[in-house]
Amino acid sequence: MKNVTDSFVSLGQWPSAGSFGFNTDILATNLINLSVVLGVLIFFGKGVCASCLDNRKQRILKTIKNSEELREGAIEQLEKARTRLRKVEIEADQFRVNGYSEIEREKLNLIDSTYKTLEQLENYKNETINFEQQKASNQVRQRVFQQALQGALGTLNSCLNSELHLRTISANIGILGAMKQITD
User: Fold this and answer.
1) d(CA 125, CA 115)
2) What is the residue-averaged pLDDT of the chain?
3) What are the residue boundaries of the structural domains of the chain, listed by start?
4) Angle at 138 between CA 137 and CA 141, to 5 degrees
């Protein structure tokens, strides 16, 4: 450490002119050389560093500007997407409401057509019942008539003897002959 302070002291003791020599103190010469190199670098490198820093600053500003433009574009796209989403939601609600009302209409139409079909089936049932009742009544009448006719024939056959039977046949033949003359 004593050498460093001695070198600074010896700087102040340099002769002003006439002698030129080598300074053998390594620490003193390195500091002088470093200060000269730094001075030259600062003097000449100041413009280069300033231009590098300006270029870097311009690139950073340009990147920030591009980022801001991209952000604004993204915000615009987001707003457009939100607007489209709102429109789609409104349309979906309309479809939902229309679908529900359409379902209700179809339901009412189905219920009405079912009631009409049931009414028609009830009418057909009643008509079929009436027809079957008439058919059954006719069958009963025919059976009663046949039984009555068979009973009357049985009674006639049992009451008629052969002479009465011949007279009835002769009377009927006479009636048929008279009818024939009238028609001629």
Assistant:
1) 15
2) 82
3) 32-140
4) 85
Residue count of the chain:
184
Amino acid at the residue 75: I
CA distance 31 to 37: 10
What whole-number percentage of the chain has pLDDT above 70? 84
Query: Tokens 């349309």 — which residue?
Result: 91
The string of pLDDT tens digits covering residues 40-63 is 888 877 777 788 889 999 999 999
Residue in this structure with the two tokens 């027809």, named with its chain if needed: 131
Helix, coil or strand: residue 23: coil
3-state SS class at 14: coil
List of residues 6+ apart from 28 with CB closer than 8 A: 4, 7, 8, 10, 11
pLDDT score at 27: 64
Inter-CA distances, 177 with 21, 169, 173, Å:
192, 12, 6
Stated pTM of the model: 0.37
Q: Which residue has the tokens 């590098």?
A: 52
Ramachandran area for residue 20 (φ above 0: left; ψ -120 to 50: alpha; else beta): beta
- Type of residue found at 105: R
**Whole-angstrom Cα distance, residue 61 to residue 128?**
97
Asked if the model's pLDDT at residue 29 lies above 60, the reply is yes
